[in-house]
Amino acid sequence: MELQDKLGTLPDKPGVYLMKNEADKVIYVGKAINLKNRVRSYFGSNQTIKERVLVPKIADIETIVTDSELEALILESNLIKRYRPKYNINLKDDKNYPYLKISTEEDYPRLLLEREIKKEGKYFGPYPNAGAVRETIKLLRKLFPIRSCKKEVPNKKYRPCLNYHIKRCIAPCSGKVPKEKYREMIDNIIMVLEGKEDELIDELQQKMDEASTNLEFEKAAEYRNQQNALKRIVEKQKIISGRRDDQDYLAISSNNEKEAIVQIFYVRGGKLVGKDSFSVLPGKADSPGEILTGFVKQYYNQAAVIPGEIFISHPIGDHSIIESWLKEKRGAKVTIKVPKRGEKYQLMKMALNNAKLEVEKIRADEEREEKEEKMTGGALKELAGYLELEELPVRIECYDISHIRGRETVASMVVFENGRPKKEDYRRFKLRDVIGIDDYDSMREVLSRRLKRLKRERTDEEDIDSFDIVPDLIVIDGGKGQLNAAYGELEEHGFSSNITVISLAKEEEKVFVTGKKDPVKLPKNSEAQYLLQRIRDEAHRFAVTYHRKKRNKSGLSSELDDVKGVGPKRKKALLLNFGSLDKLKEASLEELEKVPAMDKKSAQNLYDYFHKKEQGLSDE
Fold this sequence. Notes:
Blueprint: H1 3-8, E1 15-20, E2 26-32, H2 35-41, H3 49-54, E3 60-65, H4 69-83, E4 90-91, E5 99-102, E6 111-114, E7 122-124, H5 130-143, H6 162-165, H7 179-193, H8 197-213, H9 217-235, E8 238-239, E9 247-255, E10 259-268, E11 271-281, H10 288-302, E12 309-312, H11 319-330, E13 335-337, H12 342-387, E14 395-404, E15 407-417, E16 420-421, E17 427-430, H13 439-455, E18 473-477, H14 480-493, E19 500-504, E20 511-513, H15 527-559, H16 568-578, H17 581-586, H18 589-593, H19 600-614
Parallel strand pairs: 9-12, 12-13, 14-18, 18-19
Antiparallel strand pairs: 1-2, 1-3, 4-11, 5-6, 5-7, 8-11, 9-10, 10-11, 14-15, 15-16, 15-17, 19-20
């Protein structure tokens, strides 16, 4: 049946309508007290911005008739959760929001993290993420040492575990804990989660007084510790009203059409006990009020706790029907209002400011990601273009040599993947064959050792390491001479055809490429140039750090050659213990004697050696 024909046969009853595109995918779900009038209004002359965007995409409409508008509202929320239509407001990943469950169906209940509400147990939430639930559970277990294990309890064959001995569990598994005492702790936890800490503090005071009167001082101390911990929690809570009301404050701030944040402040017993922020994916061209309407339906459709008052930052649609629906879910009256003045208005302003800050944070994160993409992905594209590479240089290795007048020569290899440092693949080399100052031979030795590892045959049992991965580009810190030395090694080992090698000279930031007489000129301040500089500087830093470490070791070792009784083993022990020559010189005789492998005589010799040198004396 054609769409126009369907519009003429729509029922004039309450229900839900599902709008589909040409691919038969649900793109919008709505509810109406009169399906015929509501659906046909989409195709009239007074279309809203959203309707002008949506209508051209509609290829088919399906309707489901209900007995009342309230039933239609419940069905609409469930269908939105099921189909997640593009043009509806969607609570982002709402199916994954966790709950805190108290397994009251068990004789000795536990605190659990759950992803959906089932018939058994008592639930609190939903929370914005699992971390929030785990933090709450951690805090409550510190206050009330209930069990966390899955054992069937009580069972006298079980021995109490470590949690019992560190006072994190009263060990109901041992069969020595009365069910009534354990249930009392569970009732206390429920009071905390419901924001009734003041009542609990008063109860604990009474129990503490009773225990003291009965000379049960250990029990009194337990009550005192719990009471103090609860008082610290209460001190952090902002008192909102002298009335002991339960309220939710919902404030929305949106970031164009990309994302919106709904900030919820929870007021329990007149105190602000916590807050959560939820990400919402807006439908196309939705106003803040429309987004908030969709959020209220979806959030309270799965919320474990519904307060008597809900305050909102923007007026919502379906106001009276949503109140009726929430009243039915709660079993008591629920009112939804936009506060206009007084303390409620001030708290809403605070919630709104928090929502705006969250949106600004999202915007800043997006800008940072765009900047990083420009610095990495954009830089790689630029570099590939300037170097005339057929593919992006995804894996880049850079080498640098470091020494002082030819002594303690070392080299570094740093790795960048997708424009970012991959530090677990960094390697360092201690030069074995080169004597004196010879940067060309040093580079040949390093690359030869690296390429030999690349060529080696690896057994199936061996793990792949960084030397088993062929780089797309090798960068050498230096000029044409270093480049030619590096390219010679690539040719010798058979990699000159599939690995590009370039060198970057420090002075004028010239890029030398094999086979080209003149250096490649990268535009000044280009992302490609910045990337090469970052890689080269990182290789230099890594090489210098290693060389300094080697130099310190050798300096300490050579300094100790003249100390009688201090051989290689004792030198090593001293180095491990003090780390540097300066710290060793400052050590007391007692500290030297405590070093493993040292004895009193060698410690005395070493102490005398340094202190005689300070006074300008010698043994000769």
